[in-house]
Amino acid sequence: MTYIPKPGFRHPGAAVNAIGYARRDYEGAVSTLCAGCGHDSISAAIVQACFELDLPPHRVAKLSGIGCSSKTPAYFLGQSHGFNGVHGRMPSMLTGANLANRDLIYLGVSGDGDSASIGLGQFAHCMRRCVNMVYIVENNGVYGLTKGQFSATADEGAVKKDGAVNPESPIDLVALALQLGATFVARSFSGDREQLVPLVKAAITHRGAAFIDCISPCVAFNNHAGSTKSFDYVREHNEAVNRLDVIVGRGEITAAYAPGEVEEIVQHDGSILRLRKLAAEYDPRDRVAAMTYLEERKAAGEIVTGVLYVAPDARDLHDHLETVETPLNQLGDEELCPGADALAAFNAGLR
Amino acid sequence: MNAINDFVVRFANVNGSGSASANRLFARAILRMGVPVSARNIFPSNIQGLPTWFEVRVSEAGHRARRGGADLVVAMNPQTWEQDVAAIEPGGYLLYDSTKPLPASKFRTDVTVIGVPLTELCRSASWEAREHQILKNVAYVGALSALLDIDVAELDRLISEQFRGKARLVAPNLEALRMGREYALAHTPCPIGLRVARSSAAGDRVLLEGDSAAALGCVYGGATVAAWYPITPSTALAEAFGRYCRRYRVDPGTGRHRYAIVQAEDELAAIGVVVGAAWNGARAFTATSGPGISLMQEFIGLAYFAEVPAVIFDVQRGGPSTGMPTRTQQADLLSCAYASHGDTKHVLLFPEDPRETFEFAALAFDLADRLQTPIFVMMDLDIGMNEWLCAPLAWDDARRMDRGKVMAAAELEAGKPFARYRDVDGDGIPYRTYPGTHPTRGSFTSRGTTKDPQARYSEDGPVYVGNMQRLLRKFETAKRLVPEPVQRAAARPTRHGVIYFGSTAAAMLEAVEILERQGILLDAMRVRAFPFHESVRQFIAAHDRVFTVEQNRDGQLRMLLINEDGVDPSRLVPVLHYDGTPITARFIAREIASRFQVVGAVASGG
Question: Where exactly does CATH 3.40.50.970 map onto chain B?
Fold first, then answer.
């Protein structure tokens, strides 16, 4: 595998966002994933979301574990620092990075093997710790880099490319995230860019642990008949509960909606999540109801997508730890070292 | 037996009975009289009901190691009565609770037996029943104050200080102290042959545990992120860090915290948090013990290759699983020196006591930032969980954190070239940037070894080799930056040397003196870091035979010396102690003396 930088050329007429960046400025190196891989669509959605949110690219840190999905941070946000860590341990590294500098935006990219198998423990504890981050699992139900073994999110009865049937019960990361205390939970499909881009934007604006389970078919090993993570299967069984627009700041509502059709959720930072309701009775602020609904629809064979849960006034790990506003990595000797006099007093107490 | 300010008292207790605080009170009162004292807690992996011992060594000469043997045993645990009585030196003393009479066969005729009916005394007092157990311990401290001529005013003061803010507890403690003391004065000729006499020998020295000292060193060293998982004997380190942060690191204006502590779900996550925080420019550490080091291996390798500073405290103990977690050892040297898969080598620091632990803790953060690599502070249970008499901790207010080669936004803006893994000045250490520094320059993606000097993905063989060679150059640079060994020359020139490290130091220095009195002269070298300083090789070359004294089975320091410095194994004679108790001066002296007898060496120092 090689590193292929994209040419630096930018079309002079390319649109720029409010801070003067073109969409191209949010891209990374050329992807080395298989042609047609769902993960590339997710990378493109991340690029689009950051562009639309007017984020300075260098203020994002992207961390990942091991696997095809974890390679993707090389393919977006080329001006951001990245850390391709060890298998299943992105959450702990990201937690530490977040503690060191609360002012950056943290994007954790993982896969179903990385988060549902080897990293299930770290996934769980990261969610319950309310680390302020976007946690995207690019979920294809197989291990791609090692050539197609079932992962822990593969559905019971799903058929592998060689015909083997998965006898094991799947891990539903969305259900776990809800149970564990994630304050923003969504599911999407890499083949539905219209749905995915706003979800990524919403997750970025959310302060707290924002989890997106994005089903992302593996064209090489899991896109055949009998797979429950193939493009065709997901398209047929995708049941969105809502469609989302993200609006940063108030007063930007332009489109007209019929009464009762739209739900607005104001987040802590003032951003508004505007949801067009598709399932009339679905309330994304009701965690318990969401869990019940998801289980019912799953039993009916549907893949529920959309904003599944959001706690608008979520508190994050820094709130819990009561850390200072200044990022910890910017504190100097004056703020950190108690000095010789304090030590003399300390000594006096030890005699 | 007659001794002033030079004896060992061993308390045999049942754990969970509140004895430790009474025993500490005893030790501290002696220190308040100006007499050097050290205290060791030998305890089981258990909360309540198993045998535990507390040993106090009183030493005008300032010896801090366990000596071996006991001159006075306070036998409060029937389960261990036989072994406790047997441990008393001939002519020594036995203090016991005489409430229930014991047959003569339970005693030795060559020791002086002192019975104090502690249970009965406590029963007669007006305390609540649940306090009896704890106060019984204070009562024997009272009896000891009479028997050993300890100034009771010091004990009174210590009790008042200890229960400052809990006035209700002062009176019963003072009453218990007095009961024991008065009973002893009335029934035994006081003092006995062992006595404490006021002295100035302790000077301004302090009693301090290594876990606390390390935690304070982290505060002074600028650590802001700590992640840990509970494991004896390092738990106290992480907890002390929290305590000191609450004392020293709260923003006076806002009340908010200049630190973040995460009790992680396991050691893998703990080191992951540390690596992530350090990558992002915070000073971060974890504290663990051998089993934790095993679990952290993969991340340690990543930190080594991605060149992320990380500070790891390994408070060494026996392992694995259950069994020896409350016993001391120096048995993690190899697992730390070569931690992780692939070609890795790590910097280890070996503090000798809590004071040096404080210094090395703060230093470790400078070294980690300067070398951009994990730094291990190799403590052990003996240092970590026991109170050692140390010179007072010192700090130079002119000192500033050394953040190493970090390129700032202004330098990037000015066009200074940046390549994350390029050695620009020959020391093997590249420049790094913190995430978020500059809009268009200085960003990179960290990963394992598959990278070129610009941190771009590469699986090219020569590129890999070039990077691995640079890491070796960096390890060479480390030799110049880590603390140098400390040498002590024998009174006269000698062909024999000894190398030791860490908590062995106290016993070793005393052993050298014992051996000198027997005519065996040794030049001594205390190694304080790995990789070894050039002087270590020179020291070995300058002696025919060098004893390597360690608290492990396999002679792990000796292996490192042979492996890294190419030393002829036959020149290094291992002296090994690994039963889980702290090594003693008597053990070392006996072992080394026996090697001289075996080879028939003339013990003339020649």
Answer: 208-390
Domain B486-599: assigned CATH number: 3.40.50.920
* Upstream peptide bond of B191 is cis (omega within 30 degrees of 0): yes
Contact (CB<8Å) A100/B280? yes
Q: What is the pLDDT of residue B165?
A: 84
For B184, what's the count of Cα atoms within 13 Å in the CB-facing half-sphere? 27
Q: Is the pLDDT of residue B81 over 90?
A: yes
| Tokens 């969980």, located at residue | B385
Mean pLDDT of B307-323: 90
Cα distances (Å, whole numbers) of residue A81 to A101, A286, B18, B441: 13, 36, 53, 10
- B254–A contact, CB cutoff 8 A: yes
Q: Between B208, B434, B439, which is nearest A79 by CB?
A: B439
For residue B4, give the H/E element and its range: strand B3-4
| pLDDT tens-digit map of B163-200 | 888 888 899 999 999 999 999 999 999 999 999 999 99
**Confidence bin at A9 (pLDDT 50/70/90):** low
Model ipTM?
Answer: 0.95
- Domain(s) labelled CATH 3.40.50.920 in chain B stretch across 486-599
Q: Which residue intervals of chain B bear CATH 3.40.920.10? A: 3-203
What is the three-class DSSP state of A295? helix
Among residues A335, A340, A317, A273, which one has the least CA distance to residue A106?
A317
A81/B258 touch (CB, cutoff 8 Å), yes or no: no
Chain A touched by B562 (CB under 8 Å): no
- Measured CA to CA, the distance from residue B492 to residue B480 in angstroms comes to 30
Please tell me the distance in Å from B222's CA to the nearest CA on chain A: 5
Here the tokens at position A338 are 């108690």
SS (H, E, C) A248-281: CCCCCCCCCCCCCCEEEEECCCCCEEEEEECCCC
Listed by number, the residues of chain A in 96-125 with a beta carbon closer than 8 Å to a beta carbon of chain B are: 96-101, 103-104, 121-122, 124-125
For residue A85, the chain B residues in CB contact (below 8 A) are 272, 275, 302, 447
pLDDT in tens, A213-269: 999 999 999 999 999 999 999 999 999 999 998 766 645 555 566 666 788 888 888
| Nearest chain B alpha carbon to A329 | B282
Q: Which CATH superfamily is domain A23-330 in?
A: Thiamin diphosphate (ThDP)-binding fold, Pyr/PP domains (3.40.50.970)
Query: What is the fold, at CATH topology level, of the domain defined by B208-390?
Result: Rossmann fold (3.40.50)
Put simply, the chain B residues between 180 and 239 with a CB less than 8 A from any chain A CB are 204-208, 216, 219-220, 222, 224-225, 227
Contacts of A96 (CB under 8 A, 6+ apart): B225, B227, B272, B273, B274, B275, B276, B277, B278, B279, B280, B282, B284
Evaluate if residue B539 carries a pLDDT over 90.
yes
pLDDT digits (tens, 9 = 90+) for B202-260: 999 999 999 999 999 999 999 999 999 999 999 999 999 999 999 999 999 999 999 99
- Burial class from Cβ neighbours inside 10 Å (0-12, 13-18, 19+) for residue B326 reads buried
Task: Report the residue of B250, B273, B388, B402 to disrupt the A interface, i.e. the one with the largest count of A CBs within 10 Å.
Answer: B273
State the best of A76, A83, A322 to mutate against chain B, taking most chain B CBs within 10 Å.
A83
Q: What is the mean pLDDT of residues B511-533?
A: 97
Taking 70 as the threshold, does the pLDDT of residue B599 lie above it? no
Question: What is the pLDDT of chain A when averaged over all its residues?
Answer: 92
| Nearest alpha-carbon partner for B216 in B382, B353, B81, B354 | B354
Cβ of B276 within 8 Å of Cβ of A96? The answer is: yes
Residue B498: per-residue pLDDT: 98
Q: Do B30 and B38 meet the contact criterion of CB atoms below 8 Å apart? A: no
Nearest to B257 among A84, A323, A338 (CB): A323
Highest CATH level, class, for B3-203: alpha beta
